[in-house]
Amino acid sequence: MSTPTRQFHRLSIGQNMPAESTREAHTPLHDPPDEDEEDPSNEEEDDSSESEMDSHEDPSPSTITSQSRITYDLSSLDAEARANALVGLSTQFEVVDCRASHSGYDFQLLERPQIHLGQNPPSCTCLAFQSNPQVACQHLFWIFDQLHLCFVSTPTAVKASLSHDGHPRVNQRLEELLAGQLDAIADRLNWQCLRIEGDGSHRGMTRAEKVRDIFSAFSKVFPEDFRQDLTETTERRTPEQCVVQGDLEATMFRLAVHDDSVFSSLCKAMPSGACASIYFDKVQEQTRRLLADFDRYCMTGRRPVDPSHPGGGAVEVNEVVAQLRRIVSSIQANITTRAPYGSEGAAKVLVSLLDAVASRNKDPLEGNQWGRTSFHGEDEDQRNLYHLLIGSEAMDLNADAELFVLDALGTLHPSYLHLYRKELRSAQSKIEVNRAPRTYLLHLGQLVRTAESNAAGQMGSGQKRPAGNGNPGSVTKRNR
């Protein structure tokens, strides 16, 4: 078929118009024709050239190689589906979070669309899909490509045709392959994985926990301490039902939990990586203040002026030991909950804490200014932080004993240990000089060797170099 302008180029307004006007109207600016001669072959050449151009016209390609390097056959798609596939497979979208629910899997994109995959046909909340739910939108084509990538070993060797609902034609539907695999896929693709309300077995945060985490990032308190009166259930509220008279913060909290657009805007303003970085900065400050308060109390007998600051005002040795153990346990839990973000911050806090405790193998009351020889009649070892947390020989007698800090460090990828290998080696040197159980020394030595190995700083094949506070993944992290 000819282009529209070429179809109309021979039309004239009237048959009685002067020939000069007609020629002038159609005279190219760059090559004026000879007015005295007419070439009868011109019309035939025009027709043949138009036919030749028409035969080469190709409105859209029949195949496309996506950014995941998988090649897809688009020949079975109609014009609308093919256009959506071309956009989706050549665009980068950002997943704010994903979750498994009783009805399937939900993927919240940064620009507000939410994708649902399950037993029913896939759906998306974007306007394009809502106007024509029989054809997959660009978001569905994109999400299926991302998931497809996780189940192939060599993407460049894979070729698949696409269905109108966005599915690549593979042996098993991707929703079936997702069963029990969402955690691993989220880690690989650098997506935040949330768990459904009341399901403590699933790694990640609930929607309400995520909102609380964002809100607490703007304050000095930890997420678990932020407005404990603000609790929400899975029962959906309308925007009007989210209003709490006289309490803007509670109103915004409800809106963020129940309104996808508000939640997406909050996530865009305070991304998961930023929340994780802020959280571990708070933990770093908490441990620093806790140990400084303990040292000052041992030397002067002065308690913290403001017991509400990070550390809770604990100064008695048994309180400090219990608080430090809780902090390490919380760090370890947050490494998992916040994956794939925060690992670098977690490594920094843990290694700093290990070195700080390793430096305190002494009687904390030695040389004090208030004449105390003991707190409550305990001996020197019973008030020695290092002995209580690291140096107790009872550790070798119990194979299941907690290895202070080391258990948490062992959950991190070696690349993050590599970032703090010098600090880790410094702590090891102090611990080797001091009394330490053999079990503890062996585990610490293994961590140091892992951190200092040449391979520790180099990610393996298919893994992503750590950036910011993310965990290693298998694909390039999308820019926000």
Automatic annotation (TrEMBL):
<feature type="compositionally biased region" description="Acidic residues">
    <location>
        <begin position="33"/>
        <end position="52"/>
    </location>
</feature>
<protein>
    <recommendedName>
        <fullName>SWIM-type domain-containing protein</fullName>
    </recommendedName>
</protein>
<keyword id="KW-0862">Zinc</keyword>
<dbReference type="InterPro" id="IPR007527">
    <property type="entry name" value="Znf_SWIM"/>
</dbReference>
<feature type="compositionally biased region" description="Basic and acidic residues">
    <location>
        <begin position="21"/>
        <end position="32"/>
    </location>
</feature>
<feature type="domain" description="SWIM-type">
    <location>
        <begin position="113"/>
        <end position="148"/>
    </location>
</feature>
<keyword id="KW-0479">Metal-binding</keyword>
<dbReference type="GO" id="GO:0008270">
    <property type="term" value="F:zinc ion binding"/>
</dbReference>
<feature type="region of interest" description="Disordered">
    <location>
        <begin position="454"/>
        <end position="480"/>
    </location>
</feature>
<feature type="region of interest" description="Disordered">
    <location>
        <begin position="1"/>
        <end position="69"/>
    </location>
</feature>
<keyword id="KW-0863">Zinc-finger</keyword>
